[in-house]
């Protein structure tokens, strides 16, 4: 294996370890595109890890700034040695990815570090754009090289749906890190308090709040799939699979009676296998997955 192969393999391991959902969904892509997805995921994972670290806020801000400087340096350097940057440099050399989408992702991470609470639904959606929709925008030139501009709104919607799903799944985990992403105005509307969240109380008011955000996520999933036919066939099934698998998280939480406080809820392996089997059947029969 070459150094570049090793670099991509490292990125793949990050993705397989931290997001089995994405790893399985993008399995349908040709190797070149699949490897590019691994590298972009590794970039986002590194930024996430900096923000989620238990260190001092000043240290995390400094690390994020250093990470952004390393990204900027990668863009101009001809020779790159660090594995994750080596793989990402290769992606920039092969695809028309936009560095501004990567910079916007880091803006979202910086927002996360400086913001204690999200106040409004609009602020939540803006945050979701920067930390999640940007990932879709990074991937578009890889998934749909000829049509990525036309698919921009679809990618933005899918990212927002996924981020809202993350927030609904990770309420308890985020509380342990001292974070609450459910907006204050929506909590007030449904009569849910910080104390209730910290006590892990699942009552009708919390369920109503949770479902209000879930409806927004499902609206974005529906919106993202409206342009599915624009994607090339090799990418269409991966995008559809990622959407369906992530949306299934909401149903899994409902099946567990909305207990997002005591543990992190995943789609079970059997359900993932069923979804993948359905996707393979659809792909083999050359049918549209809708």
Automatic annotation (TrEMBL):
A Pfam short name: SQS_PSY
Gene3D superfamilies according to UniProt: Farnesyl Diphosphate Synthase
The name this protein goes by in its record: Phytoene/squalene synthase family protein
Listed PROSITE patterns: SQUALEN_PHYTOEN_SYN_1
Source domain of life: Bacteria
InterPro entries xref list: Isoprenoid_synthase_dom_sf, Squ/phyt_synthse, Squalene/phytoene_synthase_CS, Trans_IPPS_bact-type, Trans_IPPS_HH
GO MF assignments: geranylgeranyl diphosphate synthase activity; squalene synthase [NAD(P)H] activity
Keywords: Carotenoid biosynthesis, Transferase
CDD domains linked to this entry: Trans_IPPS_HH
Pathway: Carotenoid biosynthesis
GO BP annotations, alphabetical order: carotenoid biosynthetic process
């Amino acid at each position: 294996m070459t150094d570049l192969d090793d670099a991509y393999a490292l990125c793949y391991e990050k993705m397989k370890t931290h997001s089995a959902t994405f790893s399985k969904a993008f399995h349908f892509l040709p190797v070149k595109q699949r490897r590019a997805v691994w590298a972009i995921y590794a970039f986002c994972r590194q930024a996430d890890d900096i923000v989620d670290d238990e260190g001092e806020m000043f240290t995390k801000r400094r690390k994020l700034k250093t990470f952004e400087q390393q990204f900027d340096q990668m863009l101009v350097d001809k020779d790159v040695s660090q594995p994750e940057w080596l793989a990402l440099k290769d992606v920039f050399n092969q695809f028309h990815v936009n560095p501004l989408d990567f910079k916007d992702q880091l803006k979202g991470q910086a927002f996360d570090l400086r913001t204690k609470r999200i106040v409004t639904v609009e602020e939540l959606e803006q945050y979701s754009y920067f930390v999640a929709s940007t990932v879709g925008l990074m991937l578009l030139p890889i998934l749909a090289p000829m049509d990525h501009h036309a698919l921009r709104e679809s990618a933005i919607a899918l990212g927002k749906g996924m981020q809202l799903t993350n927030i609904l799944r990770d309420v308890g985990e985020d509380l342990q890190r001292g974070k609450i992403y459910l907006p204050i105005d929506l909590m007030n509307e449904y009569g849910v308090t910080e104390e209730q969240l910290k006590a892990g109380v699942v009552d009708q008011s919390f369920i109503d709040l949770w479902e209000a955000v879930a409806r927004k996520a499902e609206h974005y999933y529906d919106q993202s799939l409206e342009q599915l036919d624009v994607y090339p066939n090799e990418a269409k099934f991966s995008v559809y699979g990622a959407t369906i698998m992530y949306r299934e998280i909401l149903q899994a939480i409902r099946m567990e009676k909305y207990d997002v406080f005591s543990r992190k809820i995943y789609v079970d392996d059997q359900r993932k296998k069923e979804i993948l089997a359905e996707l393979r059947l659809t792909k083999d029969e050359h049918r549209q997955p809708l």
